[in-house]
Design brief:
Strand order of the largest sheet: 5-4-1-6-7
Structural class: alpha/beta
Number of strands: 7
Number of domains: 2
Largest sheet: 5 strands, parallel
Helix content: 40-55%
CATH class of the largest domain: Alpha Beta
Radius of gyration: 21 Å
Shape: globular
């Protein structure tokens, strides 16, 4: 079996939502046999699903991953003369496939903010851009190609390098490092979601790159905690699952690669 496919299967099984649904199903089956024990499993799964669905838990989990914002340009200057980044690397997230209004595949709603921030950073620094992201579905356009098209057509910016083989964050780092080191570049601005930055930075540093973090899309509490933060909402569940995905990924990378 393709190792990448195996990783995807394991990721799905480790997904908290999948785990809780399996636990609930097991509880229902056990309830048909043993009654009380089965009801206990169903209750446990329900409580877990409720907690993960609340905005309070979702944002709390998200903030365990995000570092306080630091101006990336100031961080680059702190490296000293001649030691700053030589390129901007922007990582893919998802793709809007077969978009009728765009005449084909284009960047998805998670990838677009990263592309936008990379464009802003490139204009401010004058540095060239590398886009990184392969095909997540066999036979589809690599996301990096969609990112390049968006930068060229929508932001009027050139893309110097396209890394379109990677299917994981670890591969993003490995293949991007190969391209950049061939051009004598080993220090980069790294653009991705703030919540994704710890795992991305870990991967790029393991590939021998010096990283200046340039995260975007931070979570923040804009108001005091109130009762609505404990009412289940799809956004709360989405944040919880994204945070869990990142924590599982970090543990996996440290176990499998480091």
């Amino acid at each position: 079996m393709d190792p990448a496919i195996l990783v995807q299967i394991l990721k799905r099984l480790a997904d908290p939502l999948v785990f809780l649904l399996l636990l609930m199903g097991l509880g229902i089956l056990a309830g048909l046999v043993s009654g009380r024990r089965g009801r206990g499993l169903v209750l446990l799964a329900w409580l877990g699903l409720y907690a993960l669905s609340t905005p309070f838990v979702g944002l709390t989990l998200r903030l365990t991953l995000e570092q306080p914002y630091e101006d990336p340009e100031a961080a680059a200057r702190a490296l000293g003369p001649g030691a700053g980044p030589g390129a901007i690397v922007v990582l893919s997230a998802n793709q809007y496939a077969a978009a009728p209004e765009y005449g084909g595949d284009t960047v998805g709603d998670l990838t677009l903010p990263r592309v936008r921030y990379a464009a802003r950073l490139s204009r401010r620094t004058g540095l060239p851009i590398l886009v990184s992201g392969g095909s997540l579905v066999p036979g589809t356009r690599p996301i990096a190609q969609s990112m390049k098209a968006a930068l060229v057509e929508d932001f009027n910016l050139p893309v110097r390098w396209v890394e379109d083989r990677s299917r994981t964050t670890w591969e993003n780092a490995r293949f991007s490092a190969e391209i950049l080191k061939a051009d004598g570049i080993d220090t980069v601005y790294l653009v991705t979601h703030a919540m994704h930055m710890p795992r991305s930075r870990l991967s790029f540093e393991a590939a021998g790159m010096t990283v200046v973090a340039a995260p975007t899309l931070f979570g923040a509490r804009h108001a005091p905690v109130d009762g609505w933060d404990f009412v289940p909402h799809v956004e709360g569940l989405a944040q919880s699952l994204y945070a869990a995905h990142e924590w599982i990924g970090r543990v996996w990378y440290r176990w499998a690669h480091l």
